[in-house]
Every structure is written in structure tokens, then in C-alpha cells.
Amino acid sequence: MTDPAITANGLRKSYGDKTVLDGVDLTVAEGTVFSLLGPNGAGKTTAVKILSTLISPAPASGEIRVGGHDLAASPHEVRAAIGVTGQFSAVDGLITGEENMLLMADLHHLPKAEGRRAAAELLERFDLTDAAKKPAHSYSGGMKRRLDIAMTLVGSPRIIFLDEPTTGLDPRSRHNMWQIVRELVTDGVTVFLTTQYLQEADELADRIAVLNDGKIVAEGTAEELKRIVPGGHVRLRFTEPTAYQGAVSALNEATPDDDALSLQIPSGGSQRELRAVLDRLDAAGIEADELTVHTPDLDDVFIALTGGATIPNQPNQPNQPNQPNQPKDAVR
Ligand SMILES: Nc1ncnc2c1ncn2[C@@H]1O[C@H](COP(=O)(O)OP(=O)(O)OP(=O)(O)O)[C@@H](O)[C@H]1O
Description:
The protein has about 325 residues and is of the alpha/beta class.
């Protein structure tokens, strides 16, 4: 087995009296996407800054290794192995996209010809060739983000840190960015991602860690995390009061809502469980007008684990808190 791309043991950081990271352990396997989730101010950016050598951890922290190097002993080697795209763009708007890329190539001390080749290749890969000679301030938000990541890749880093790479992007640009992340991982790059969007972590991350009050409160795959919160159910809705009453009698474990003529039955949402409910309705000769399956999603996990802390915004719903029990489900 290869060594993990990133390991942190007992990562700690305080600002004055405020403890931001209180003994965080992280392991990120090579060639995977690891997503750090947490409410605003949880310390995600602080973790990224420490792991990318921008700020120092508290002396009481344990060993941190990035790209096979000890962060404290070999920060230069760590820096050579990583790329960072922060929340604030590194793009200089006054010069062209191509000039931004060449500047990065110079910073990485690439020979001129190699720098030009890398810049041209990356501009092509990120669909920026047509805009390459235009000043970057004329780029759309999505183009600037793509240029930002292209600049991060000039030095061919094996590990990249993406701190909220899609915040503020429209859905199409967000999906483009997800595709870029997937392609990077296919090429073997390790991605450490912080995001405001739970759906993004669900789409991209091999593993997700939830940070709350300076500690990792849960870690696992999206599916594993969803399994730790209860709340899966099937909801049946009727228009006919007689059919509704029949269903109430047939499904005695269901929670009825007389006003809405609906029933809620606890369920993990598997095919077998759904069939069992439908079979019991069939046996009673009842047909529901609507059947909705609600499986816990990362919103539910987030709210359950972070004690109702402000939930990060969801795509297309800027600044709108999500409710834990709103189904985002299949309706049959
Ligand atoms: N240089 C600093 N000096 C003092 N406090 C700081 C400093 N940098 C961060 N903090 C505090 O540390 C806490 C964690 O900040 P951080 O930016 O890491 O959170 P975050 O999880 O990335 O939040 P967001 O999702 O809002 O970006 C916050 O309370 C923040 O105010």
C-alpha cells in the first residue's frame, strides 16, 4: 500500500484564547478527494493553511506529513509537492490569462520553452485558449476560477488544496469545476477540498470529515455518514379519506397526518423495504396517490452533527438555510 498523501496527528491551532483546531487527526489516501466540511468559522481554511505551510500549527500538534515529507522539518519539499487555490483568487486581472500562467511558470523556475508549453497545454485543457490573450478582469467568474486552478497546476503538484473552489459559481460552472476535479483525480492527483456545498462533497469526495468546535465529529464516505443519522422514511399521500383510513389501518407503525391525508413510515429506502410497504397496501386493496422516499442526505448529517449550526449555502439557494426534514426526493 502506498503512503497516504496527507497525515495529520493532533493538529492544533489557537488565536489568542480561541481554540480553532483542537487535536484534529486526518489521513488522506493518495489519488482521492478528501472533503473537509464544517460550519462557517469551523477552521477549515485554517487547516488548509497549516497543511499547505502558509501558517504554523501550534507547537503541541503531532506529526504532520504532506506528500511524504514532514511539514515541520521539510516545508520546502512540501511546498514543491502541493498546489493551493484559496478562497481569494491569485489571478491578476490587469494582465492576460496567458501572462498569468507564464508568471506562475517563472515562479516555478520552469525554463522559458517549458513554461510556454505548460501554459498553452493548461489553457487548452481548461478551455481558456480563446480568451488567453484577453485581460483576466474581462473573464467570467467561472473562467477566473478555471484560470486559478490552471495556475495552481503549472508546477504539476501531486496534491492540491481547493478551498471553496465553487463558491459563487453558477450551476454550469460548478459542474465544469467538478469535472475538472474528477479528471485531476483520474490523473492520480490528491485533492483536499473544503466546500460550502454539501452536494459538492457528496458528488466528489471519497471521504468526508465533518469539523465542529475544533474537532472532527465524523468521518467516512458520504454513504457511511448518511447511515449515522436517522430520518429515512416513505411518505404516502391520499386524496380519498377512505383510502387514507384504510392505509392507516393497514400500516399501523406509520405516523398519520389527518389534515394532509398522508402517512410517514420509517424506512431505509431500500427496494425490499419499499416493496414490503407496497405489498401491504396491495393486500388491503389501497392505492396511494403519491409515494415519496426520503433518504437522509448530507444536510441531515451536517445538522445532526454540528448541533444545528448554520448550514452552508446550497447551490442556487444563496444565504438560505436548509431545513433538516425537507425532502429532496424521488416522487413516484
Ligand atoms: N489570523 C487570525 N486571527 C484571529 N482569528 C482568526 C484568524 N484566522 C482565522 N481566525 C478565526 O478562526 C476561526 C476559523 O476560521 P477559518 O477561516 O479557518 O474558518 P472556516 O471553517 O474556513 O470558515 P468559512 O467557512 O467561513 O470560510 C474563525 O473564528 C476565525 O475568525
